[in-house]
């Protein structure tokens, strides 16, 4: 492990993760931070503007892995499930 002395560190406002570059911290906040409202807002806009085309997710049956059974429906464009969409519309 390298210990850097006299370095400026930038920190995410939401999760307090440290970064060496300002651009890295900004990029993290806008795209990857799970506590940041920015990616959540972008995802909500994408879901609300999507014309949902549903597909059924198939999962293997317990004990019969070669057979598949329907599990849940999801949109092939925005990957939202029907349950998530109902929660978003009711909220």
UniProtKB/TrEMBL annotation:
Occurrences of domain C2H2-type (ranges): 10-37
InterPro entries in UniProt: Znf_C2H2_type (IPR013087)
The protein, known as: C2H2-type domain-containing protein
Species: Oceanobacillus indicireducens
